[in-house]
């Protein structure tokens, strides 16, 4: 069985790359490597590493790559089993996301666009942006707005771990957990 390389990338900052990469890595028990300064080493000790020179490793891994191009990133893109591209629905994020996906297609066909921090009542307002993303022909997963995303990083727990803590968290995080499970299924099975 070959290694899984899951890469989380978007040229646009502030789309939730690190929180998604961290949660996916933790739930899959994969190491998490990044070329971008963040708290991952302190919240995922022994499994997360920030590297000055990012490079491909021969192991199941999740990469959290900053929005800049580093020489080692091309090999990572080419070897990726799945590339996750988180975005928000503002016009600047959509534009940068479309540009990012168009560049990544030449390296990896299995790209999943994650529309992050979705507020269902606001979806009709963003129909044109959503249509533009759908026009890329890539799978799209919606992750609704939730405190779970912020709490995940602050409490050093994956979204799954937060959900499973108690009856109250199962109730509070049921929506985002359902969204997140769909994302994990796409990562695990490529569906």
Task: Describe the SSE topology.
Elements: E1 5-8, H1 17-28, E2 32-34, H2 40-43, E3 48-50, E4 61-64, H3 73-79, E5 82-87, H4 91-104, E6 111-118, H5 127-134, E7 139-144, H6 147-155, H7 159-164, H8 167-172, H9 174-189
Helix pairs in contact: 1-6
Question: Can I get a quick summary?
Answer:
With 191 residues, the protein is α/β, with parallel strands linked by helices.
Shape: globular
Q: Beta-sheet strand percentage? A: 15-25%
Strand runs, count: 7
Task: Estimate percent helicity.
Answer: 40-55%
Uncertain runs: none
Structure description:
The chain has a seven-stranded parallel sheet with strand order 3-2-4-1-5-6-7, sandwiched between helices. It has a single domain, classed as 3-Layer(aba) Sandwich (Rossmann fold), CATH 3.40.50. It contains nine helices and seven strands; from the N terminus they run βαβαββαβαβαβαααα. With 191 residues, it is of the alpha/beta class. It has helices at residues 17-28, 40-43, 73-79, 91-104, 127-134, 147-155, 159-164, 167-172, 174-189, and strands at 5-8, 32-34, 48-50, 61-64, 82-87, 111-118, 139-144. Helix 5 (127-134) links the parallel strand 6 (111-118) and strand 7 (139-144). Helix 1 packs across helix 6. It is globular and about 40 Å long.
Throw out a few tags for this protein.
18% strand; 7 strands; 191 residues; alpha/beta; seven-stranded parallel beta sheet; Rossmann fold
